[in-house]
Amino acid sequence: MTETGAQTVRPGATGRVVRELLAEAEALLGRAAAVREDHARAVDAVRSVLDPLLSALVDQELTAIPVTRLKDVTEGRLRLTALEQAGFTTVGQVHGTARYELRLIPGVGAHTADQALAAAGQIADAVRETVSVRIDMDAPDDTTTALVVALHRLVEAGPDARRAVEAGRRLDEGLRPLVAAAAPAGSRLRMLFSGKEARRRALDAVAGVRAALAEADGQELPLLFGQVSVDLLRAPESAPGAWVDFELRSAEYYSLLAELSGSGPDRDAAEGFLPAGIADRVRALRLDDARLRVSLRGYQSFGARFALAQKRVILGDEMGLGKTVQAIAALAHLAARGERHFLVVCPASVLINWDREIRARSTLRPLPVHGPERLEVFAEWVTEGGVALTTFDALRTLPEEGLALSMLVVDEAHFVKNPATRRAQAVAARAERAEHVLFLTGTPMENRVEEFRSLVRQLRPELADVVSTTHGAAGSEAFRRAVSPAYLRRNQVDVLAELPALVHVDEWEEFSPEDLVAYREAVASGQFMRMRRAAYATPATSAKLERLRELVDEARDNGLKVVVFSYFREVLAAVGEALGPDALGPISGSLPAARRQELVDTFSAADGHAVLLSQIQAGGTGLNMQAASVVILCEPQIKPTLEHQAVARAHRMGQVRTVQVHRLLAADSVDQRMVELLARKDRLFDAYARRSDLAEAAPDAVDVSDGDLARRIVEEEQQRLARPARSE
């Protein structure tokens, strides 16, 4: 018998059993190597298109840099007289010239040529870090089409590809040496003639191989490798299909572009200008994304890690930068580590969005805890775990369960800025028992120091006491330094290079009781247009109007201009009444063209925040509204071209900010039926016809029949709403 650690292993354990074990390990290593090779080929396919594009952008930048800058790089040691006399005026000209050609210039020796090329190369490297490729959907050429097609393969593989490659690397580093060390144990003869120490090492390695294989099975790595290889080996997507996918998932394409090109925002800006000590601590935390279904951009990964590393914080990113997905990433990390109980508290208007976002972006289990069955669902959450979603008002009615929360997320956290309110007290009680607390708010806290102190007192009382109003008065950088242990904010301008130019967000709302009554009456009447505007029939309790006000308030806090589009004049009237006299418009078909342009000019000239209301038919064509960076669509449109043309009024040449498009949708309603039916159309035809001159001139040519769609939806909704009545 041979001893190995605390185990006793018989010599008979060697031979066939070990050979089978090693064969299993070799097979796993083979699959791991294959997926890494498949991924490398997919990356090389992107780089073969991307690198020339980046080089062209670098060359373009270098042509604007005077040749005298080469002296700065060499600290004045480079003599440029001969180069300038030969007609070299820019760094780009030097960078694009071969060494032997430079040496042919009178007065330029080998040393000067080498110095000049090295200096030009250093400048080119620095420029390369700042340039980024922008993909113009409205003017696709062969090169950008090839890039989109190449990127599609990696986007389709998703975050699993990165996990598979990383797991394959770890196996290669850990399992492969064990297999080599265990090889002697596969032969009884070799073990018989090996010394005691050699046998012990071989048997220890066998135990290590067995443990590594068990761990790989537990992580389902064989399945992961197989699935990712299948995704990476698919035939290339067609050009039209890739462009349609880019339109739907542009954020993921741009995220990959930033990763592969090495470009993106300045690191300090992407990290919110945090002090070095805190930033280092956050960077050191490895985010476990095993339960995520999306790839994060760099700044989003940092935001999630900030919440995890600092534990009790406020994430105050400007609207449109993805605070929700950063919170979901933090929740998914904790869930992957075995944590079970998470709580999200938010306004009622965004609860359904949280439910949909968690399901779409992670494998976590959301449980909406609101409505008449909230206590039963809450009890289920206490027993089984998951992400409980509840509203500020519903939170007060839930029992004090006593269990420790892994993470509490509070969306629109400024709702609890007043500690004397019952909602703030209910949140504070839960926060005391949570290991991690994440407050989300798009309101810039440096403009509201007292509000910040109130919020942070619930997280870190000791920090609230040292923050004074003078920090806000001293400017945003001074404020951020003072509050850096508990506050992270990035602005669009800081991370714009890593953002798509257009961000679409579907804002799903649940009907209020009054909304539902109005909607049921509209369905019973069989009037399609009445069904479409029923969500605004009772403005005082309209769920859509409540969310619209929240979006406008957040835009106001960030100094952003907003355009609100609706098909219906009476909806715009309700919106105008809800927003007050500061809202401009509405622009409608009955307004003379000169008056329409006057409203747009007033809107554009306004200093900071402004709101413009417009009928989508009237404002969707002919008017340029690029001063707006937030577009709100009050309802989905029968003709998709109407929405595209309306958005194009803001998202066009001259727009320097990311455009956020928020489409207000009511769940289980005509809105949902329209979205589902229109999604089932031939998307490829729509995508390309929409870009043609014919589509611009005659949108009806590519849209479904209004009458057919309306009749179908009315019938479906009447049948759906009738079913519960028959079953009672």
Automatic annotation (TrEMBL):
For this UniProt entry, the molecular function terms from Gene Ontology, in alphabetical order, are: helicase activity; hydrolase activity
Segments forming domain Helicase ATP-binding: 304-462
InterPro entries named in the record: Helicase_ATP-bd (IPR014001), Helicase_C-like (IPR001650), P-loop_NTPase (IPR027417), SNF2-like_sf (IPR038718), SNF2/RAD54-like_C (IPR049730), SNF2_N (IPR000330)
**Location of the Helicase C-terminal domain:** 547-695
Q: What class of enzyme is it?
A: hydrolase
Per UniProt, which keywords does this protein have? ATP-binding, Helicase, Hydrolase, Nucleotide-binding
- Give any Pfam family that matches: Helicase_C
SUPFAM superfamilies, from UniProt?
P-loop containing nucleoside triphosphate hydrolases
Q: Which CDD domains match?
A: DEXHc_Snf (cd17919), SF2_C_SNF (cd18793)
This protein's name: DEAD/DEAH box helicase
